Amino acid sequence: SLGNLPTPGSLVARIRQTAPQTFTTAVAEFIDFDTVDYDPWAGFDPATPDRYTFPFPGIFQINGRIVWETTATSRRAVFINVNGTTSSTGTRGGSSVQAAAAGGTQVNGVGTYPAGAEEYVGLRGIQNSGGNLDTSTSDGGSCMELVYLGQSYV
């Protein structure tokens, strides 16, 4: 038995980053989260801060955002990846934008995934400013939310 599942459309978790993380130019890395805003099913483990483990099987919508520090040079991207993959088969959503001319740059990605128990999801970022670039804690910082959509019957 899966116990008490949430109602479809319910928030399952919201985790975020409250300390900047440095990204080397052109090197994709997963965001290390450090703060739990909501996680009643305890899928986040601080020992593995780059992921959220799906607490039960089902279809999930994953919303992710990376907030980058100010620099107008080149592009920023975010990808939602499952089970530590960085290939296209493990990418469930994402986007890439030109860096803002002034102020930080926020990049959002949305995807869905029919997860099995103990699978996990992470938020992967990449930037190509030509140097190291930190994530920013402005506007709430980088975050990831999971919404339960229902059971998978595949």
What does this protein structure show overall?
The protein has no helices and twelve strands. It has 154 residues and is an all-beta fold. The strands form three sheets. It has a five-stranded antiparallel β-sheet with strand order 4-1-12-6-9, with no helix packed on it. Strands 3, 5, 7, 8 and 10 form a five-stranded antiparallel β-sheet that branches.
Structural class: mainly beta
Distance between the termini: 18 Å
Strand sequence of the main sheet, in spatial order? 4-1-12-6-9
Largest sheet entry: 5 strands, antiparallel
Number of strands: 12
Sheet-strand content, in percent, reads over 45%
Q: What is the mean predicted local confidence, pLDDT? A: 93
In sequence order, what are the helices and strands, one letter per element?
Answer: EEEEEEEEEEEE
What best-fitting shape do the alpha-carbon axes yield? elongated
